[in-house]
Write a structure and sequence with these properties.
68% of the residues lie in helices and 7% in strands. The protein has a two-stranded antiparallel sheet. α2 (35-47) packs across α3 (49-58) and α2 packs across α4 (61-87). It has one domain. The chain has 6 helices and 2 strands.
C-alpha cells in the first residue's frame, strides 16, 4: 500500500477502535509571555472571545501577546520614570523619609499600571 503524504513527512497513526487516527500534538509555545501579555490574554478570553479564538487558530496569539507585553512594559517604565521626575521623588527622599518615599512610589506605580491597562491591555 502506498504511503500517505502524512506518512511520507514522518507522521504516524494509532488505532482507535476501527479507525486510524494521526498522532498529532499542539505546538508548544516557546515565547516568554510576561505579566502584561498574560493580562491581555485573560482579557481577550473573558471579554473578546472571537478575537482570542481568531488569534489562537491563526497561530498569531503568542506573537500578539509578546508584542503587547513588550509595549506595555516600555510604557509602564517610561510613565514611572516621568512621574517620579515630575513629582521630585529622589534618592534623598528615600534616605530621609523611607515611608514617604514608598507611599509616593506605590501611588505612582498604581497610576502607571492603570494607564497601561486602559491604553494597551483593554484596547
Amino acid at each position: 500500500m502506498e504511503k500517505t503524504l502524512f506518512e511520507q513527512m514522518g507522521g504516524t497513526y494509532r488505532h482507535e477502535g476501527d479507525y486510524l487516527l494521526p498522532n498529532l500534538t499542539a505546538p508548544q509555545s516557546v515565547a516568554h509571555i510576561g505579566i502584561w501579555g498574560q493580562r491581555r490574554r485573560d482579557y481577550l478570553k473573558q471579554h473578546k472571545e472571537p478575537i482570542y479564538t481568531g488569534l489562537l487558530l491563526s497561530g498569531k496569539l503568542d506573537a500578539h501577546l509578546v508584542e503587547v507585553d513588550r509595549s506595555a512594559t516600555q510604557m509602564y517604565e517610561r510613565l514611572v520614570a516621568q512621574m517620579t521626575q515630575a513629582e521630585g521623588i529622589s534618592e534623598e527622599l528615600k534616605v530621609a523619609d523611607p515611608m514617604a518615599w514608598v507611599g509616593r512610589m506605590n501611588n505612582i506605580r498604581a497610576v502607571a499600571e492603570e494607564v497601561v491597562r486602559h491604553e494597551i491591555i483593554f484596547n
